[in-house]
Each structure stands twice: as C-alpha cells, then as structure tokens.
C-alpha cells in the first residue's frame, strides 16, 4: 500500500488532469507527483492550500474521503475581522448553512502560524484587522470551512488544511510530498 502526504499549493487542482475550459492549462497534481497508481483521497479547493492524501488503496481512499467515517480534518484559517466569543461559540455548536446544519466544530483563535508565503499573497487592508483560527471538523461539504466562517461574519482570507486524522503537514514545505 502506498500513502503519500502532499502539501498542495494554492491554485493547484486536486486532480491529475485539467479538464477545464480555460485558455491555458492549470497546475495539477501531475505537476508535482510522479507516482503511478495513486489517487487523491478527497479534494481540496483550488484556492485552498495544505494537506492532501493520495493512495493506491481504494478502501483507505474511501475511509478518508467519505463523511460516513467522520474523520477529523483540521484547518488553519485566516479570517477578516477579530473573532468574538459568540462567533467561536457558534462554530463550536454548528451553524446552519443552505445545505443544512453542520456538525459542531472545534474552534479556537490562535496566534498567526509560521507558514510558507502564499502566491499570490493575501490582500492586506489597513482598516480591517485579520486573525487566525484553528478549526476542526468531521465532515467535508463543498467549501464548508469558508461558508462556516462567513456565516458567523468572519470571511476567509486564507485556508490551509493542516491535518487529516493523525496525518499532518509537519515538516512538509508547500509543493513537497513524502511517502508514509
């Protein structure tokens, strides 16, 4: 069994080919990983960064990707604004999005993490503060973390998936991967 941890940079598709209709081809996993027979276990939006797990084991892939298994996923989220206790409590209780209520999340304000530079950089506004959250969820709806933080009045500026289950990005630079 092969398991690969990949630190996906921003603007990279979480697939090996680009089937888009844009004029120029977009970056894909094949620009970074040349290991035959592995496939992503789950997705990460093009405008998000961080941990992707790739494997050649279909059963493991299903256990990681399926919401049925409630696998913990931890994100570092830069948000616009300063989170209040009420906003964090709302995330901890779960919020109701257009596609229904979310499960309760672990949510805490954190000091700015020591991350790699993002390309392009996050826009900085002198009149609007920003802050960082650590958010752990056990489901994985489309753009869920971004929608949850926006729902409580904290629009997402940068989203980095740091951990899936027991696997994390510790020691893995943006664009790098390793077998585990």
From TrEMBL:
<feature type="domain" description="Pseudouridine synthase RsuA/RluA-like">
    <location>
        <begin position="3"/>
        <end position="151"/>
    </location>
</feature>
<feature type="region of interest" description="Disordered">
    <location>
        <begin position="99"/>
        <end position="122"/>
    </location>
</feature>
<dbReference type="GO" id="GO:0140098">
    <property type="term" value="F:catalytic activity, acting on RNA"/>
</dbReference>
<dbReference type="GO" id="GO:0006364">
    <property type="term" value="P:rRNA processing"/>
</dbReference>
<dbReference type="InterPro" id="IPR020094">
    <property type="entry name" value="TruA/RsuA/RluB/E/F_N"/>
</dbReference>
<dbReference type="InterPro" id="IPR006145">
    <property type="entry name" value="PsdUridine_synth_RsuA/RluA"/>
</dbReference>
<dbReference type="GO" id="GO:0003723">
    <property type="term" value="F:RNA binding"/>
</dbReference>
<dbReference type="GO" id="GO:0009982">
    <property type="term" value="F:pseudouridine synthase activity"/>
</dbReference>
<dbReference type="InterPro" id="IPR018496">
    <property type="entry name" value="PsdUridine_synth_RsuA/RluB_CS"/>
</dbReference>
<dbReference type="InterPro" id="IPR050343">
    <property type="entry name" value="RsuA_PseudoU_synthase"/>
</dbReference>
<keyword id="KW-0413">Isomerase</keyword>
<dbReference type="GO" id="GO:0001522">
    <property type="term" value="P:pseudouridine synthesis"/>
</dbReference>
<dbReference type="InterPro" id="IPR020103">
    <property type="entry name" value="PsdUridine_synth_cat_dom_sf"/>
</dbReference>
<dbReference type="InterPro" id="IPR000748">
    <property type="entry name" value="PsdUridine_synth_RsuA/RluB/E/F"/>
</dbReference>
<dbReference type="Pfam" id="PF00849">
    <property type="entry name" value="PseudoU_synth_2"/>
</dbReference>
<protein>
    <recommendedName>
        <fullName>Pseudouridine synthase</fullName>
        <ecNumber>5.4.99.-</ecNumber>
    </recommendedName>
</protein>
<comment type="similarity">
    <text>Belongs to the pseudouridine synthase RsuA family.</text>
</comment>
<dbReference type="InterPro" id="IPR042092">
    <property type="entry name" value="PsdUridine_s_RsuA/RluB/E/F_cat"/>
</dbReference>
């Amino acid at each position: 069994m092969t398991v690969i941890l990949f630190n996906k940079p921003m603007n990279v598709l979480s697939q090996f080919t680009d089937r888009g209709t844009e004029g120029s081809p977009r970056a894909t996993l094949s620009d970074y990983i040349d290991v035959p027979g592995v496939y992503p276990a789950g997705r990460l939006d093009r405008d998000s960064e961080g941990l992707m797990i790739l494997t050649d084991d279909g059963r493991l892939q299903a256990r990681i990707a399926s919401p049925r298994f409630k696998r913990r996923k931890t994100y570092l989220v830069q948000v616009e604004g300063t989170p209040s206790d009420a906003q964090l409590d709302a995330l901890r209780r779960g919020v109701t999005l257009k596609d229904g209520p979310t499960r309760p999340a672990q949510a805490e304000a954190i000091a700015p993490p020591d991350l790699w530079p993002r390309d392009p950089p996050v826009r900085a506004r002198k009149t609007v503060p920003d802050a960082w959250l650590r958010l752990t969820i056990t489901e994985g709806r489309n753009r869920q973390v971004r929608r949850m933080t926006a729902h409580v009045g904290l629009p997402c500026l940068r989203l980095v998936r740091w951990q899936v289950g027991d696997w994390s990005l510790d020691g893995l630079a943006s664009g790098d991967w390793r077998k585990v």
